[in-house]
Amino acid sequence: MASEGWQRRDVLKILGAMPLLTSLPTWAAIARPPAARIKPVTETLWGVQITDPYRWMENTDSPEWQHWLKGQGQYARQVLDGIPGRAALARRMSELSGGAESPSTVIPVPGRVFYSKRPKNGDNFKLYVRNEGETTERLLIDPTTVQIEGSHMALDWWQPSPNGKYVAYGMSKAGSEHSVLRVLDVETGTNLSEEIDRTLQAGPAWLPDSSGFFYNRLAAGRKRTDLNAMQDSVNWLHMLGTPASEDKRMLAANQWPGVAVDALEFPYILTDPASDYVLAVSMGGVRLANPWYSARLSDLLAGKPDWRKICDIADDVETVLQQGDQLYLQSTHGAAQNGQILRVNAATPDIKGAQVVVPASDRIISGVTLAKEGLYLQMMDGGYNTLSRVDSNGKVINIPLPYEGSLDGLSATSTVDGIWMIGASWLIPVTVFRYDPATGQISDTGLVSQPDVDLSPYEAHRTFAIARDGTRVPLSIVAPKGLKRDGKNPTVVQAYGSYQVVSSPYFSTRFISFLEQGGVMVTAHVRGGGEYGKRWWQAGKGPNKPNTWRDLIDCCKQLIKDGWTDSHHLAIEGGSAGGITVGRAMTEAPELFAVVVSDVGASNPVRMEFSPNGPDNIDEFGTIKNKAGFKDLLAMDSTQHVKNGVKYPAVLLTTGVNDPRVAPWEVGKMTARLQKASTSGKPVLLSVDYDAGHGLGSSRTQMDNDLADEYAFIFWQTGIKAFQPH
């Protein structure tokens, strides 16, 4: 669940240490998790009566909620720590993750490339810079140097100035994502005077001369738990060296005639160092298509912008890029569901007169970026990427990749030749590549080193499952070579299926610890994601949402049929919106699974819009304010589908107390409902991290602990004796 257009599965993990119940001595053991008080709230919505036994949990300031949550966390911690071999697994996990570097973002400017990564044996992502032609890197920002008692700092976002002299960046504590904006002088390594709070969704866009930047700021005077905490944000212009109180209001609701900005939307102004124009967009939370506008930068700075509408929501434009006075639009409108690239002039940008640069075809355009020499396209096929370039004649030229896997975004700027990309596959470690148009070659930049781990004992399989309606659903399987398919292998199946997000091939040294014990790692590319573009997303959205969890169920049945595992050794895992997927798969087919893991999982969608981030997700999931939306939300609500007296599998749920995306009370309600309803005698645990949020700012140690808990829980509940010390 996120308000940005990108997500990473490996940052949806948030477990770690937590305080004990304040009313108990630190040595006291808890015999059972605390029972949640039942106080039913019954309401009739669109002729349907629904009862919420735990509505009181939504008051997260109440001592009762705090006491219950701490008790649940303490109980889960003592159970998880007591699993045989869990400590040995955690040590192995730390050894594996510490030996790998993990990049997150790369941004070039003329003469320099900036990049963030978590270095070997590091605990947090840090920002580095490397000058063109040099092989040495320089550390610019290290969040671990900021000491906060009982917590940690995380680098949330950053953006270098066009001249490479400054970096605007945001840091927050305890995984909250509530960033404070600062500006770093790259040469001196010191911060300027800027310190601007409420910049969770800042999205800074520098002026071409690097003298200041546009940025989004949340409204003042609201608590993070307020239902309107994310509403009424404003885009401001900040000039370097001036106080934030002097920033100019540049884009907000009802500010400019003809520019519609809703209170629920996030207004942004985008610049390009090689253009006299700026773009304006009002981002509708998780909505992919948005209204876009253009104006001359000089007119905007003079306070008299002549905003011209480029497109509206109905035009299905997902991205607009600018180069000089030319604008390039990525659209999936009408018959062009697989994507097409259009071009308009920034001065007269109406999409109705757009020129088709790259027409729609049977190939799916999943991303586009502009380098100095032109357009590059990221293509998608069932979760796997290819790369193409558009030449000066409009011809699409394929660029062979050195592997079969994923591209985690393309990075370029209109003032630098070539593109940078982060590539990986299931058994190919993450690498930062660069494509040089002068040579036509893709090369390893050396920005991240390769882990010292032997991958030869394992193999990846790319296959399909047949869903109940005949749809071929991609399955990616990673397992030890020559593994006997006798149905006895511990298997974890990951699934997501929302926002048109693609579960692409990725690499993590951590999952080697699962494979070493004879485990099987599987990704089910269920509908609702973007593995086959817009059509795949819409086939798991709205009234089609049941396809998402039923695809997961059918994929698991296929794995059992093929001998990979059986229902006694099968686990499913989903994070964030993937909580809908695994939660409803469990409530619809509880007998199929031995274990269910829901990481910061959306579990109570009927009440989602009554959380701070809920309104931003209405475009994806719907609203109870209309009949169709309520019907869809009720269908995907796992808490509402838990039934008394059912033998549910073992369940591990996680939450971060500072989560700004999925309210902890959603996870709490699901936990309480399962603990009350299940008759299987299997554990239902709620692991709570008081130094985490949704996982995007979690440290390496927190992620190690998270997966150690998860894998130990799966092995324990599937009867596998593992975790011999290495």
Brief sketch in words of this structure:
The protein has 726 residues and is of the alpha+beta class. Strands 31-32-34-33-35-36-37-38 form an eight-stranded mixed beta sheet, sandwiched between helices. Strands 3-4-5-6 form a four-stranded antiparallel beta sheet, with no helix packed on it. Helix 2 packs across helix 11 and helix 6 (546-561) crosses helix 7 (578-588).
What this model shows, in words?
This protein has about 725 residues and is α+β, with helices and mostly antiparallel strands. The protein has 11 helices and 38 strands. It has an 8-stranded mixed sheet, sandwiched between helices. The longest helix has 19 residues, at about 65-80. It is globular. The relative contact order is 0.14.
Strand order of the largest sheet: 31-32-34-33-35-36-37-38
Shape: globular
Number of helices: 11
What would the average pLDDT be, to the nearest integer?
A: 94
Largest sheet composition: 8 strands, mixed
Count of β-strands: 38
Helix percentage: 10-25%
Could you name the ranges where pLDDT drops below 50 across 5 or more consecutive residues? 2-27
How far apart the termini lie comes to: 37 Å
Descriptors:
four-stranded antiparallel β-sheet, 11 helices, eight-stranded mixed β-sheet, alpha+beta, 726 residues
